[in-house]
Amino acid sequence: MQMKRHLKAILASAAALATLSACATVPRAGPAEVTRFVAPAATAQLGQGTIFIETAPGLGNSGMEMAAYKAAVARELAAQGYRETSRAEADQVAQVSLERVVNEPLTGRRGPVSVGVGGSTGSYGSGVGVGVGINLGGGGPKDVVTTRLGVMIRDKAAGTSLWEGRAGFFADTRNDLAQPARSADALADALFEGFPGRDGETIEVDLPE
User: Fold this and answer.
1) 165 is in which domain, residue-wise?
2) What is the rounded distance in angstroms from the CA atom of residue 197 to the CA atom of residue 145?
3) Cα dist from 35 to 18, 116, 138, 139, 182, whole Å
4) Does residue 8 lie within any of the structural domains?
5) What is the CATH number of the domain that holds 49?
6) pTM value?
7) pLDDT tens, 69-80?
């Protein structure tokens, strides 16, 4: 009986060491790369009033995954002073876009490494794009997920863009931050850090472990 207990203790220790070793080999995610564009004279309109949150036009994202990102954006907008309401009652509209790309190092297949944000060649409001480059290195042969979250805040009555932002990062598929629920919170938090931010500035924001 004593030998059996001793054997169980050895097996338990080995399992614990294996778990620790597996955790230690998973690279950290991020940091998130964040770019914001602020329309001239829009600062007074940002962070107040009513807002409606919707999926950006032309996107096929739907279901639980997109819902997680929209919910995370809603929490951040509320923290900035907005009150979420129906589209009919809203003064402003936040359009949320999402892109998730899996890079497969062993097969050589990879998704795009940049995505359009803000205005063409650095100008504001065209929606065409300054590329935000995301390093897909990540280290090691495991698959890497790159996730990009974009938000455009518009004046509902005028239809003009008041603010645009895009945040993206890469994570090993074994990392918890590769999962939609975790990445939604992390990206929304990074995107609205220091809101509204400086027009055209790109910053890096460390992600939680």
Assistant:
1) 27-205
2) 26
3) 40, 11, 21, 25, 20
4) no
5) 3.30.160
6) 0.73
7) 999 999 999 999
